[in-house]
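Summary for the funding panel

The consortium committed to producing paired sequence-structure records for every protein in the target list. Below we show the first two records in order, beginning with the earlier of the two.
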Amino acid sequence: MTSFAHQLAPAKKSPTTTVNKSDRGNGQPGGQLDVGAGLSDAELIRHVQDCGRHMLAHYERFEAFGDPADRQAAVDWLKAQNEAQAALSDAGKAEREAEIQRAIDDGVGFFAARGAADRERLVA
């Protein structure tokens, strides 16, 4: 078990850069990956997904509590997500677009199936 007094190694954005001056992550995009650090497409795609989750969480908190810092954090996470998407290779961009299209298709298929089931219940 790790003691709270145990000092962990500073978090890293890239092999050469610490997260922030105090060496702690702060929940802001500055505490995340450096997209220029030679990351693979798989790492960048994972980062894009993580940025999206953080962005939505901050925006939902902004909607719930109205704190402008949460809105700004959501905007910052969106910016970080866009930077990561721009850093993808052409093949990585195509993979990401295919992933998004599959999610759209799955959603459309789900709603079409639910609509058909509802129509059958109305007829019966």
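The next record, for a separate protein in the list, is shown here:
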Amino acid sequence: MDNFYEVSEDTIKTFFEIFNKKSFPVSIGFQFIGNEKQKELIKVTKISDPYAFLVKKEILVSINDDLMSVFDEESITILMEQEIDKININIETGKIKLVKTDLNTFSSIVNKYGVEKVARANKVEELYQEQKKDAKTDEEFIA
């Protein structure tokens, strides 16, 4: 428990400055917690329904304040925005879920080919896997 602490107001303010530039259809409750042993600057996780009911918050934002001084302002913005972009809301149900990143690769590949080409290649691969899964599902219903 020694590694947890209250997140600074400046850090929370920075988070909301970035978050408020996004467009979300419903209001989201955030619970902030500092974690000095966390290896990444920021991590968002969904709070399970029973605990969300108790604390009246849906998303836990875990931040390592010590790392804030290591990164420049642009890197902080990128890292926070990356985590915020994981938050996905079903407009019809209002249900919140966290999604995986849509680009996961090595920096050397991005440096060699550029972000656009790598993203396109990953998207094609992802679509192929989805179509393959859909085809398999369709076959099961045909029988």
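Regarding this second record: Residues 102-143 form one domain. The first helix runs from residue 9 to 19.
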